[in-house]
Amino acid sequence: MSKQSENGNGAHSYAHPDHHHHDNDLDPFAARVKALETILTEKGLIDPAAVDAIVETYEHKVGPRNGARVVARAWSDPAFAKWLSEDATAAIASLGYTGRQGEHMQAVFNTQDAHNLVVCTLCSCYPWTVLGVPPVWYKAPAYRSQAVIDPRGVLAEFGLVLPEETRIRVWDSTAELRYLVVPMRPPETDDLNEDELARLVTRDSMIGTGLPLRPGSLSPDALWPPVFPDGAQP
Fold first, then answer.
1. How far apart, in Å, are the Cα atoms of 202 and each of 61, 124, 198, 216, 226?
2. Catalytic pick from 124, 173, 205, 217?
3. Whole-angstrom Cα distance, residue 70 to residue 81?
4. pLDDT per residue over 14-60, tens digit each?
5. Which terminus, N or C, of the chain has the lesser number of Cβ atoms within 10 Å?
6. Which residue did the predictor score with more confidence, 53 or 219?
7. Active site annotation includes 217
8. Active site annotation includes 124
9. How much is the pLDDT for 50?
């Protein structure tokens, strides 16, 4: 266990506990999080093992991998796609994905004529069960306001420029209802199985700020999910 020390001006500094190794390459936000974790651990307010278990859950059990499998099933199974469109909560639960902020779901399907974009204008309501922890930008005031005011401009900032004739539908998530965008299946994927299709589905494509990957864009041994445009994993 590390010890608390006091510097010359009376402020306290904290040595890092043995449980984690921290380096100097963390961005300011991550560094603050690590410092807070260290302080709370030393005060006995949190258990590092419990924190690790939570992180493990959201990295490997709850997250965009789940949503990707829902989308891949909808792409490959018309009956499931119909069920998903009619009762997304039940269809998603049938794959074993239930839990916090996933109790009331609606799936919205992209088409050649319409593109769906999800935002939460009041706070950051988000379907954790299928998409994991919301990205930082999803909670930012700029995204929450501009997605409604200028959705086409917001999409362009993400590198997604849609034809002028494509209608953009903006869906406002609430505590009572959360949305999952089902992007259009990429062309030339008829020979892919469900697992291979799931690898093409990114988190951003299920929010509406991106599109699925194209076949061949991932090597067979590539990690999933792929790195997202903002460089942050959920």
1. 16, 19, 9, 15, 7
2. 124
3. 9
4. 333 444 444 456 678 778 888 888 898 898 888 888 877 767 666 66
5. N
6. 53
7. no
8. yes
9. 82
